[in-house]
Specification:
mainly beta; Thioesterase domain-containing protein; Thioestr_dom; 7 strands; HotDog_dom_sf
Length: 74
């Protein structure tokens, strides 16, 4: 599947995640979620869970501070 692209709420910067861990149905657990902060620095967080659906359906990234629901860009 490769990378999944979403838009972030806080900084409106591109967030991407690489699937490397577990896939069970439509629930995919990613080892790292990467994004650029307001200073342009690349940040990474581990253990994020992203629900990925078919192209055109809604999907979301959920962690302790952010929930994003946007059109799929798969």
């Amino acid at each position: 599947m490769g990378k999944v692209f979403i838009r972030g709420i806080k900084y409106e910067e591109t967030i991407y995640a690489t699937a490397v861990a577990v896939r069970a149905g439509k629930k995919i657990i990613f080892a790292e979620v990467h994004f650029r902060d307001s200073d342009g620095n690349l940040r990474a967080y581990g253990g994020q869970t992203i629900y990925v659906f078919k192209e055109g359906e809604k999907w979301s990234l959920v962690n302790s501070t952010t929930q994003v629901n946007e059109q799929s860009k798969l």
